[in-house]
Amino acid sequence: MLTRAARISPGSVADTYPAILTGYDAYIHNSAFQGISHTKAVRFQYRHNDMDHLEQLIQKAVGQYQTVFIISEGIFSMDGDICNLPRLVEIKHKYGGLLYIDEAHSIGVLGKTGGGVCQHFNIDPTEVDVLMGTLSKSLVSCGGYIAGSKILIDYLKFKSEGFIFSTGISPPNVAASLGALEIMINEDWRLKRLGENAEYILEALKSRSIDTGLSKSTPIIPINVGKENTAIQLSLYLNENAILAAPIIPPAVPENESRVRLFISALHKKEQLDYTTEKIIEGLEKLRAG
Which of these three, 160, 184, 208, is where a domain ends? Predict the structure, then answer.
């Protein structure tokens, strides 16, 4: 199902099931959290990517709810790490639950042909009840999509306010995303190069003792600096040196967890990545010196 808005809230899905218990990763995108916060579902937060904690919390509620609805992201947008999809699927089956994965940052990035987190782990996509994504990143357009069973999609078309009270996506937007999909499938060297570039700069930064947090060789690499003003000043310094890297500050991240976020491209050259690494180090040194 294609939508004009980039995101269909998981709340739209949660409301389709009675007596639902919703568990969400602590690092899910704010739009997902806002969606479920407006539902009637009882909800709980589990520690980031901590599958044991998720299962412990589900076990405490077994028998009290008809369905458990688990929400996670493919690649986490602020940290660049990947969800533990094999365990999520395992837990979903063990407790007869439903699984919702936000693929906004993983489609076109993970998997041999950019098929996303399911392709990355070689898991049948039908094991995930709802796969949601945006057309505005790897798919170079505007709008979003949601994939699931025919019953679920038909229901959302009649019940999702985000779909009902908006106009359809435009044909040029669809054509642009279809073109991007063709490139992803037919030019898989881009995905290979993307992975190589991400790993190259991540290792370079780590070797220079730069805090890159949880990033795991994905194109999202945070430069964790803590203070909000430090993130803003580092971003400005990089911009002055022809490097576009936005500051991520509260409320997008918790207090004292501000960062500058890098997005790596398949078309970046090693020289550009080396230059970026040096400018990050240079900028941090200048800020520390006052």
Answer: 184
